[in-house]
Amino acid sequence: MAAKTLTIDGKQLSAEEGATVLQAAAEAGVKIPTLCHLEGLHDIGACRLCLVEVAGGPKLLPACTTLITEGMEVTTASERLKNYRRLTLELLFAERNHVCAVCVANGHCELQTLAGQQGLDHVRYDYCFPPWEVDATHRLFGMDHDRCILCQRCVRVCWDIEGAGTKHVSGRGGKAKIISDLDDDWGDSETCTACGKCVQACPTGALYHRGSTVGEMVRDRSKLEFLVNAREKKLWSV
Amino acid sequence: MSQRIVIDPVTRIEGHAKISIFVDDFGQVSGAEFHVVEFRGFEKFCEGRPYSEMPGITSRICGICPVSHLLASAKAGDAIMAVRIPPAADKLRRLMNLGQIVQSHALSFFHLSAPDFLLGWEAPPATRNVFGLIQSNADLARAGIRLRQFGQEIIAVLGGRKIHPSWAVPGGVRSALSAAGRETIRAWLPEAHATARVALDLFKQVLTTHERETQLYGNFPSLFMGLVAADGGWEHHGGKLRFTDSSGSIIADQVDPQDYRTVIGESVQPSSYLKSPYYLPLGCPDGIYRVGPLARLNLCSHMGVPLADAELKHFKSLGHGAVTSSFLYHYARLIEILAALEFIERALDDADLAGTDLRADAGINSLHGVGASEAPRGTLFHDYTVDRNGLLQKVNLIVATGQNNLAMNRTVAQIARHFIAGTKITEPMLNRIEHGIRCYDPCLSCSTHAAGRMALHVRLLAPDGTLVHEVVRD
Ligand code: SF4
Ligand code: SF4
Ligand code: FES
After folding, report:
1. Considering only alpha carbons, which residue of chain B is nearest residue A99?
2. C-alpha B122 chain-centroid distance
């Protein structure tokens, strides 16, 4: 495949055609904040945290789904972008009910960590306090919609890696919600294999092992990466 | 830093302790009410949450005794799982509770109460506090501060450095006590013992010159309630409930905390949000009972450790039947510190403490569970009802300050009756009311202002409700 040359934050670099801006940046050692992106899953540009500026156009583009082009000039950390990132994070917090101090993911949460990195110390919007419930019907796992950021990592891992196809999104806007099968109780799902990949993939405290207490949900992403690697490199002959 | 963006579920109400004193047509004090504004939305807030989150959530109810809520909540969780937790976990939890008793009692005695009886009731409020104590009796003040540090050290060694540990969990605890941690605790013991000794001798001295206070600060018959061991000995975390009356006779014994509703009723005082529990068979207000150090020592037949047992004998000699003066809460607190130190010492030599099985695992085996533990201020109940998935349907918490509320009212009335000057609230009266309340060490933010002085708002009311006199002290 042909290589393309571009600049990211003034750094000249080349990357393979077909690579995303996010991949090219990573190779060049430029860190772009992400939330919905997870190594091994296809990207959907859901969270808008990875937005970057590309010279020649007014639009902000998600680095995870934008392919590189020849001569592209990318900016990843302008004041404007920082403002947007903060805003996006603030809206995520305001939209649902996050109480980090008592959350199973406290200290191991990607949303929380990002908020810290972006210097978010307060939220300028009114909290919505939506009345979400906890689905604790599954034998092994729980789902607390209060903490879901709709990144759909769980959906993608469930379809792409496990192939069970249990998780879906229902509803739109503020009512959008991760469901199991046809909005059944998770515990009644006929497709769920109880593999737990969604729990490992979730960036927040939304999905957790039942019985977890404050700060106990530490995810092990290496298992997912291992599976993807094994499949791509055909380590198993099935 | 991200802590700052959360909405804290509990808004602690800072401010003034509000007190109403009622006078009759002849200008005599007929009663008093200590209004406690407590945030009741908390119990509602928890509904729908998984029970396993409760130790973490409830230890945030209150910054004053998080450990007590943590332990009671974990115990309620044990009951829902219907497990008997591993011995090491139980002993570690007990160790943490002992640490909590030491630190909380040390704060109450040295920082908050001692300045009153060592510097004198008439000392100006600006110096009648721990800073004044440091000036007049630096060694004692420093020793008290160190004793409190020791208690906090135990909590930190077990639960980690965070202020609100979520270390105890349904089924057990999350981490063991390291060998290094054990030695850290052990190294503190000689100094802690010495401080407890000094404080005990000092307080016995105070008693000889404070007969009037002993007579007037909440001295009245009432029931007493708390946990006792199976053999009737002092208990702080396990055991069953016992009630005695003011003659010292046992009127209910070995009641399983799971069945507390058979002995405890709750009335809501219209004027405050605090629920006032009472001994059910006697009704309200006859069933008024006190909890906490004074109650625990009245209830138990022995402490179970030699030094504290010797003190208990002396303590019991101060009452006819039960010891009924709330001024002696202070003495009881010191004896409990001593007992805690002896039990901590004993625990450190217990081989079980090093066990590696720390957490039982089980599903939802009971839809209802009660956790009871002796908080420094008195028996704490966490009562949870869950659905079959472990989500909370109903939460009922009974805290020590609520249980002592009726007794605090009586104490205030008793003191007011003696120190009122005509229809005026005077400064000496205010100081004494403040101390009367302090005997109970109520868990209110207003009672633990940094400088150790209570912000008070006292009103004197005529029978028709008209305001006779009002004093606000910041
Ligand atoms: S999911 Fe993350 S951000 Fe939300 S409450 Fe939990 S720790 Fe905080
Ligand atoms: S449950 Fe977790 S992984 Fe799934 S959409 Fe919500 S935050 Fe993302
Ligand atoms: S990581 Fe690119 S949009 Fe979420």
Report:
1. B6
2. 27
pTM over 0.80: yes
Structure ipTM: 0.83
Cβ distance A134 to B48 less than 8 Å, yes or no, reads: yes
How far away, in angstroms, is A40 Cα from ligand 3 center? 14
Beta carbons of B52 and A115 less than 8 Å apart: no
Domains for chain B: give ranges and CATH numbers: 3-39+422-473 (no CATH), 85-219+325-352 (1.10.645.10)
How far is it, in rounded angstroms, from Cα A48 to Cα A51? 6
Q: What is the A152 CA–ligand 2 centroid distance (Å)?
A: 5
Whole-number Cα distances in Å, B471 to B17, B21, B39, B152, B438? 12, 12, 25, 37, 19
Q: Among residues B90, B102, B109, B105, which one has the least CA distance to residue B188?
A: B102
pLDDT tens-digit map of A183-219: 999 999 999 999 999 999 999 999 999 989 988 999 9
- Taking the CA of residue B386 and the nearest CA in chain A, the distance in Å comes to 11
Contacts of B170 in chain A (CB under 8 A): 211, 213
Give me the residues of B, 376-405, that contact A with CB < 8 A: 389-391
- Burial letters A13-32, b for 16+ CB under 10 A, else e: bebeeebbbbbbbbebebeb
Chain A within 8 Å of B161 (Cβ-Cβ)? no
Which residue of B62, B389, B392 is the best one to mutate when testing the A interface, meaning the one whose CB has the most A CBs within 10 A?
Answer: B389
Tokens for B118?
A: 């060592």
Q: What is the pLDDT of residues A28-70, one digit of tens each?
A: 999 999 999 999 899 999 999 999 999 998 999 999 999 999 9
Question: Which domains does chain A carry?
Answer: 3-77 (3.10.20.740), 99-232 (3.30.70.20)
**A52 and A64 in contact (C-beta within 8 Å)?**
no
Strand partners, B22: B31, B461
DSSP classification of residue B10? -
Q: What letter does residue A158 receive in the DSSP assignment? A: I
| Alpha-helix runs per DSSP H in B280-426 | 293-299, 306-316, 329-348, 400-403, 405-419
User: Hey, are the CB atoms on B7 and A127 less than 8 Å from each other?
Assistant: yes
